[in-house]
Design brief:
465 residues; alpha/beta; Aspartate Aminotransferase, domain 1; Aspartate Aminotransferase, domain 2; 3 domains; 7-stranded mixed sheet; 20 helices; binds pyridoxal-5'-phosphate
Amino acid sequence: MAEGSPTLRLLPSVDRVVVGLRRRGLLEEFPRRAATLAAQQAVAEARRALKEGQNGVEPEAIVDRAAGLLRRQFGDGLRRVINASGIILHTNLGRAPLSKAAQAAVDAVSSGYSSLEIDLASGERSSRAVHVEPLLTAVTGAEAGFAVNNAASAVVLALAALAAGREVLVGRGELVEIGGGFRLPDVMHSSGARLVEVGTTNRTYLSDYASALGPDAAMLLKVHRSNFSQSGFVHDATLSELVGLGQSRGVPVVHDLGSGCLVDTTRVGLPAEPTVQASVAAGADLVISSGDKLLGGPQAGVLVGRQAAVDRCRRHPLARAARLDKLDLAALAATLRVYLEPDRAWQEIPILALLSRTPQARRRLALRLARAVKRAVGGMASVDVVATSGEAGGGTLPGTLVPSWAVEIRPVSARPEEWATRLRTGSTSVVGVVREGAVLLDVLALLPGEDRRLPALVQAAAASG
Ligand SMILES: *Cc1c(COP(=O)(O)O)cnc(C)c1O
């Protein structure tokens, strides 16, 4: 269709769409420049649709689209969300919520200047590392510790610092993809280390490592299978065996644990997640873990272990590129301080508190929530309580289902997907799950007080249809 065709000329002007946005009160909420950009995009899309042969685009639909673009692109972006998904550490929902102590530390450091790299006693320049190293060593028992931006960058840093241009031995069954396309073989390649695969997918013995270990070997790397499990005819060399081999041949051993669990998960009836302390005690030169998985802190990558190996990472030029920012540093230090008293950690670290709730407590919470939701939606939906299998998530406790309960909401005259969308896009976002014709709001990951906000949010979603 030609540019001058009658249909194209019927498209509203950008100015008219902006007037439509103003009529909806959006110019009070957003700057005019943002409204104009959204209107331009919406009109351009409509023009393309017409050229591709779609007939007729309602001017009001174009204003709708512009309003959607305006909110999505220039609204508050990263929003607070209530996690009713039944997955505690959900990477898409920002993993671990911070403890009160960590929130306060972030607040204090972000609202003013800080002692990030100054020694306040002497007035001399200092290093940001001093804020977490003593805590890391105290909590894990390691000789030395260092924190970077995330565990992925800690892995890259360790490889670059200890093994660039040389060989790294990894069990074939541990060449994992962590998620978001982070594949260990690619990471190794990018760090300049040469990957030597050892053993087979399901069975790898110490003797496989020993026979592959040549003069060019710079590291024995063990990677925790944090997001999958193997069962059946399987065997792995243990970390202690690798440490024995590494020490006898002068080759450092690195354990990428993924989730930095610092507590005994069997205490709350969960399977044992390997701890950082155990890997340190087994003698690994470096143990790498995430700050925002089971550790329950901010995004960070934690490297602990022997002084020599940690120092090589700290001094490598990439350490500067991977450094932790002051807000995460403050939050990590405050989180680690709680672990100096493990009993406090179970109460004060939000994800540990969630994991230590009993199934009965989860059921009571779901029953109470269901009653309130039922009152809120009246005849618009039937409301029930169902047992669910939740997850710790975030690449922790793979395959372990955490028994939980959900409120099951079955709309009478709408599709559950519509309600789920409205819940996600309402005044406070709620992320639930749609299953078998119902919206499920799982109580597993609900933080204290969030359950009391849910009935009104469900009511708003029901009423806006
Ligand atoms: C999650 C994970 C990582 C990456 O951690 P991030 O902090 O997300 O970068 C690395 N290794 C393993 C084994 C993991 O499970």
